[in-house]
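Chapter summary example.
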Amino acid sequence: MIVAMVAGSLLALALNQFFGGEAMTGIVTVGTLPSRLPPLSAPALTLENIKHLAPSALAVTLFALTEAVSIGRALAAKGGYRIDGNQEFIGQGLSNLAGAFFSGYVATGSFNRSGLNYQAGARTPIAAVVAGLMLMIIVLLVAPLAAYLPKAAMAGILFLVAWGLIDFKEIGHILQASRRETAVLAVTFFGAVFLELEFAIFAGVLLSLVLYLERVSKPSIKSRVPDPRSPKRGFVTDSDLPECPQLKFLRIEGSLFFGSVNHVQETFERVRNQSPGQRHLALVASGISFVDLQGGAVLVDEAERRKKDGGNLYLVNVRQGLWDSLERCGCLEATGGRNIFQSKTAAIQSIFHKLDKEICRGCGKRIFRECQSVEYTRKP
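The structure predicted for these 380 residues follows.
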């Protein structure tokens, strides 16, 4: 590639000499670079400067981090290794802090430099150190020669580098496997073609987060009933099996956070309207990893509604993460500390004593083992 740049520079120089200069040939060069290192500097940490630069610094930092991590993950997937995003953030932060004392501007990962390094066989951070040292030497000794380097020659080399990094097989897999991932791919690709690379990466990451939040904002909520065909009467989701007229079992798969509370509230309200006689609601919580303040408030509100109607809310199979979250937000006692059970068997045994036995006597469904203890009275 170095030979190609030298050959391109010599060809551009010959064409300019033959046709009478850049104005006639239209060959644009990189231009003369300063042949000295940046001077030492000290940041002016005044309140006025901080207020003036903070919004721009935050925006540039977000662009820099997303670009660096995206480039790193692309190369990691290509090379079959793993990168530590947290370590990348720490490294960039330290480099930018140090750069403030050397007249530096915001440092980030470079697709051009990273791609060239990868194709040259670089696999360790030493490559970046060597590249930095070589750049200092080039700036001091070779910078004036950049005036003869055509941008077209640089573009050709970068095009070859980029072409070698395109994973056509993975692109085809994304197009076939997921519409969501295809949308992220399309936004990033066309953003890079028609807009700036940094904006394209940022837009792709932002769209990915939006799609993720849209998906987790609607956790799966299914009715559960004991299966009489199973020897242990395991709970299943089957609309053909009968439910207890007083007790409803629901299983939630997903976290209860601010983004999902509307969906959960709507489901609770729909259950109350469809089955007003099922005043007792048991939530199988093994699929809930945590709740935030809004999610905890939803559980507290549902418990209070159930109590006013003569029922209650119960949590079954509570994981340690959910228990800790409920405890931190102060919702553990508010939802009823005695209404938390570590198994469905224990929950049914306890809740059954709170059911209206007159309704149990006229109920022929008998879906729980405890129902056999109540004499069935057939209605005339």
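To summarize the output: DSSP finds 15 helices and seven strands in the chain.
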